[in-house]
Specification:
35% helix; 4 strands; two-stranded antiparallel ribbon; 71 residues; alpha+beta
């Protein structure tokens, strides 16, 4: 049975046999779907919730809009 993995940066499902795995010295494992995601998080030190094309940004934006409508 194949384990389904999600990109640590953008949240997209990664097909088996593709993507990049990055392991930190403390043992934390990050999976990336593309080199774009790897560079954005590891090299450029960007945060997924502030990068517009990630799923986490969309979730945060939706929550923010919902809270504005209630006020």
């Amino acid at each position: 049975m194949v384990e389904i993995r999600h990109c640590s940066f953008c949240g997209v499902e990664i097909e088996p046999g593709t993507g990049k795995m990055y392991i930190k010295k403390d043992g934390t494992v990050y999976n990336y779907c593309t080199n774009k995601c790897y560079k954005n998080q590891v090299q450029m030190k960007r945060v997924p919730r502030t990068t517009t094309w990630t799923k986490q940004f969309a979730v945060e934006k939706e929550a923010r809009l919902r809270s504005e409508k209630k006020e």
